[in-house]
TrEMBL record:
InterPro entries per record: DHH_sf
Name the record gives this protein: Oligoribonuclease NrnB/cAMP/cGMP phosphodiesterase (DHH superfamily)
Annotated organism of origin: Methylobacterium aerolatum
SUPFAM superfamilies in alphabetical order: DHH phosphoesterases (SSF64182)
Length: 384
């Protein structure tokens, strides 16, 4: 059964996706930074699943449940009731106290699971839906503990996975008295230093890169490395991972920095950038340094004359080689230089690549009314 995972964008969210990928073939992982964005992303998934023939599993981990998300659960159940044949499955693994409050307010009072201290389950009225909340466990640990709900195999390197779970659990639940807390803090620092600025979300290598880095760090913790030793080893670990990813890259230059080497591969990506109607290439949520390097490569190769990067918070960065970056920025209440300028989305934020595309396309390339190109079109609206 095809498996899609929606998870948080912090260490625990990536820990959960690392565990899931070790236990099953995850076809797609979507990292969500803001709980307020979970509802719209889930709604898109429910619409997609409503049109899907074969049954799939949707796994949600470490995402605080807000009112709009719980409304999405109701739509999921309604979609499943209309479905003939095998039903889609929804597995929700969360550990936020606020989620319990929201579920209760929406009429889904979570109840204790027999024999599992601290674990609560909300009955959603659909046997294909499992919603579990455990305030005493991080999502990474929950994903491993409840892997039978989605797993197709037992994980390799179980000792390293166990070391990762202990480190993330101590850090995410702020258990300062735990001997695993210092290691968890070191892993968290490595994660934030490398998670999005080398291989960004949206690229096929992103989760492979981050999970490999987390597992490499966990292996060093298992071997007894101190936080200082782990910090010193981090650069070598990410270099080894990049070497493996770039083994068959036709234009790799090992003498360059890891970031510069990866930028060459990112510039060839057909999934990281979306072509707008006027030929502008749009990316979503790229680190500013990565965007600068990759956009330069793209324009040097002749793939586009203008590139724009949209951040979740609604800021836009335009780059061009024909002086049109400023033209684009002006349409979004912005300014800057002719080939490097910025602006803001009209709505103030974007929750996904599709949302960013829709907002930018509407302003950058508005639809012309039928017949507006006709030389007689102006006469139709002429008033004497």
């Amino acid at each position: 059964m095809r498996l899609t995972q929606l998870t948080h964008h912090d260490l625990d969210g990536y820990g959960a996706s690392t565990v899931a990928s070790a236990c099953a073939d995850v076809s797609r992982i979507v990292h969500i930074s803001r709980y307020s964005d979970v509802g719209p992303v889930l709604e898109d998934e429910v619409k997609r699943l409503g049109k899907t023939g074969e049954a799939e599993t949707l796994l949600m981990t470490d995402l605080g449940l807000e009112e709009q998300t719980i409304a999405g659960f109701k739509r999921f159940a309604a979609m499943n009731r209309r479905r003939e044949g095998e039903k889609h499955r929804l597995v929700v693994l969360d550990h936020h106290a606020s989620s319990l409050d929201q579920l209760g307010r929406q009429g889904f009072e979570p109840a204790p699971v027999f024999g599992r201290e601290g674990l609560l389950q909300a009955e959603m009225g659909d046997p294909a839906m499992t919603v579990l909340v455990d305030q005493d466990s991080c999502a990474t640990a929950m994903t491993f503990a409840h892997r039978a709900l989605f797993a197709s195999r037992e994980p390799e390197r179980p000792e390293d996975l166990a070391a990762l779970i202990k480190a993330v659990d101590a850090l995410d639940l702020w258990r300062k008295e735990s001997p695993d807390f210092p290691g968890g803090t070191a892993v968290d620092e490595i994660f934030w230093d490398n998670a999005t600025n080398l291989v960004p979300p949206g690229h096929p290598w992103h989760d492979r890169f981050v999970s490999a880095l987390l597992m490499a760090a966990a292996a060093r913790l298992r071997e007894g490395a101190t936080p200082a030793e782990l910090e010193r080893d981090a650069v070598a670990m990410r270099t080894r991972i990049a070497d493996a990813l770039l083994t068959d890259a036709p234009d790799d230059e090992p003498s360059q920095t890891t970031r510069a080497r990866l930028a060459r591969a990112l510039a060839r990506s057909d999934t990281l950038f979306h072509a707008l109607k006027d030929g502008t290439l749009l990316s979503f949520g790229l680190d500013s340094g990565t965007f600068q390097r990759v956009s330069d490569r793209i324009m040097e190769a002749g793939r586009a004359k203008r590139v724009v990067n949209v951040q979740r918070v609604g800021t836009l960065s335009f780059r061009s080689i024909d002086g049109t970056a400023l033209d684009g920025a002006r349409l979004f209440r912005g300014g800057g230089h002719r080939d490097a300028a910025g602006g803001r989305l009209p709505s103030g934020s974007a929750y996904s690549l599709a949302d960013a595309i829709a907002q930018v396309e509407t302003v950058l390339n508005p639809e012309k009314p039928a017949g507006s190109d006709s030389p007689f079109a102006a006469l139709k609206n002429w008033k004497s």
